[in-house]
Amino acid sequence: MNLRQLRYVVATADHGTMTSAAQALYVAQPALSRAVRELERELGVELFARSGRGVVLTADGEQVVRHARVALSAVEAIEGLSAGGTGGRGADLRIATTLSLEPELTGRLIPRFARDQPAVRVRVVRCPGAGHAAAALRQGRADLALTDLPVPGDLVAHPLDQREVVLVSPPGLKLREPVPTSALNGMRLILPGRGTAPRAEIDMMLERVGASPVAAVESEERGTWLGCVRAGMGSLLWYRNQLDDTDGLTVRSFMPPLTRLVGIVHAHRQLPPAARDFLAFAKEGPRSVHHP
């Protein structure tokens, strides 16, 4: 039995379905279901019974959830004892991040945090992808990670920003609206230059939906992208809240929606004061995450 399992059981009881509980905790639903089943096997009791499309607590489940709430409250109180002691002063803080999110971490978050906590020494652990960032947390090589959500169930996620990805096209391009993600297959796209952080983001999105477009233009100059679309050279896949001037162009959403959720992640263990300070700072800051 571990705290992660108790958190998942309580969340499932509160939300009525494992899918809703997983969404509330920003973890993958199969990981949550697996953890609950493992706890049931360990205890030798059934915690939930099916009810329509959701689940309800059994008599044993009600007792487990009641004790779990007490245990989790006690853990939070114990962890809180270290929160205000040193305030992170003079401490070391290791933050893992992916290639595409490193500019956000080093260009905006860390400089702002350093103004409030100048004595904290922040070290960035650079990771090729989200899986490597998760490994750095599990192995104790990082205290926190700025990465994409959801994450595996053995990690704790704190969402910071959700970005909608849209398709910007020349007005004459005939497409269903909203655009099915399958329409990206073979589509001519204006893409960021290879090896850049924006290109890593786009490649990750395309891989996630299994799409294989055609690279009509590859450019590191972000200011030229919409001009290429206006010239009819191709369409652009980018974030709605980062588009400046789309006059004369067609902006379409995707179905299912194509979004990217970014957050701060850490392992299920007590955080050092500096990490707690950084997490609180990041969660209280501006909700929109933009590139510098």
From TrEMBL:
InterPro entries registered for this protein in UniProt: LysR_HTH_N (IPR000847), LysR_subst-bd (IPR005119), WH-like_DNA-bd_sf (IPR036388), WH_DNA-bd_sf (IPR036390)
Domain named HTH lysR-type: residues: 1-58
Keyword vocabulary terms for this entry: DNA-binding, Transcription, Transcription regulation
Molecular functions per Gene Ontology: DNA binding; DNA-binding transcription factor activity
Residue runs in coiled coils: none
Pfam family, one: HTH_1
GO cellular component labels: protein-DNA complex
Domain of life: Bacteria
Keyword Transcription: yes
Family label: Belongs to the LysR transcriptional regulatory family.
Protein name, as recorded: LysR family transcriptional regulator
Organism of derivation: Actinomadura harenae
